[in-house]
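Batch job 17 of 40 flagged for manual review because the log was empty.
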Amino acid sequence: MTPHRMKLKWITFLMAGLAATASYAQQPAQLNVLLIIADDLGIGDVGCYGSKWLSTPNIDKLAEQGVKAMDAHSTAAVCTPSRYSILSGRYYHRYPRNWNGEALIEADRPTIASVFRDNGYATGYFGKVHTGWGEPRSDRKHRQDIDWNKELPRGVLEMGFDKYFGTPFTHNEPPFVFVEDRHVVGLDPADPLVVVPKEIERGDWGWGLSRGAKAAHEARPVKEIDRIVTDKAIEFIDKVAGKKPFFINLAYVAPHVPTYPSKQFQGTSKLGWYGDCVEQMDWYIGRVFQTLEKHGLMDNTLIIFTSDNGAIFHKEYLEKGQDSNLGLLGQKTDAWEGGVHVPFIVRWPGNIPAGSTVEPLLSLMDISKTAWAAAGITPPDGASPDALNQLDLLTGKSSAAIRSELYMTGITGQALRSGDWVYIPQRGSCGITSDPVFSWALQINELGQTNSDYNVDGTLKADAPKKQLYNLRTDPYQSKNVIREHPEKAAELAKRFTEVRKR
């Protein structure tokens, strides 16, 4: 059976989304929560947001039966700080030191998972985690400076998860293995794993090398990562269904480079291996939905789908006409909109109106308090201090904006969103799109994008302002820096930027 025919078989949900009531219905204590996070997926990579190249029927079905957010943002334009905020409900710049691979979230800090677990939930994390292992040490030289041949130190389980299976960092950096709970999968003590950090040898992707451990490396075939992770998530659902409610964080590596689809999906999309990986991920998501249906849990599971940050552009696909960020300025790594504006879809039948959209700003950081509220859980004091409960907005109980402000981090700077305004206290994208030092990445002119601070050849204008201000209501593509036209608003936001940054 071809992948496309298999898609048609599994994408049909057995029940349509129920009409929402004026206020969301009282749910039983057994509400399950499934959080699905893609890696570097842009809004233009999802059919229901307007992709003309990619087919994502299972993700689209969520939008048909739930709500689609039109102004959802990550707190950061790369994965580690973004995922830190999702798990902790806390801005990454609150972390008190420079991260060097240690476990980012303190063992005693409440997380989205630990609060669910403390309230009787089975909790599982499947896929890419990238939030570190072990304790911070003054003598720690490298991000991967731990012994992978032993039981691993503090990591995923200490964040409130009963079960973990996945890649310990991004799949293009060492160690190129799976970890289950606290141990490398398939590791032979007679063939130890040796990590060569990037500071010594950069490797194919610039992050170092992973040697030895032949069986462990073979247990994590790069083309099968998301399939295996999906299998493990399904095993977890099969194990706990009907016994305990569950919270699952399912974190795919697609479509982060390297984009290597399995043999089954190679050549099945219209957009090369990138498209194959996205459509493959959608099919795997459909398998998870099928499992929920099998156990009769589809209507009693709050399903959230999103991406950790915006997409990065690939020249060969851009030349075909695929715009992964739908015209938004910039890409992954940038504090411009293209780096932080993400797809965000939520399905909860009987509570969220089917086929609805919400326009106000929300952040991935808000997921924790929103999901706890849906489950009727009161979090402990201090949990998710920077998150907001967006449940009334998503269920249609209120149309008013709940969040008016968001601090967003690129790899070389930050931006402050305040209402419709975005303030950036420096020039450029705060990432790769406007900095020639990142010559490996497509620059602003190569993306075909325009901004008033830049010449048509992508060079910065000699008279460009040293800071930036945009109004997203009138200029959603950030084509015009209006900081000189609005000095009072710029001064107001500069003051607020300083206050937020001091957190």
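Reviewer: the log was empty due to a logging misconfiguration, but the result itself is present. Residues 59 and 133 are 32 Å apart (CA to CA). Unflagging and moving on to job 18.
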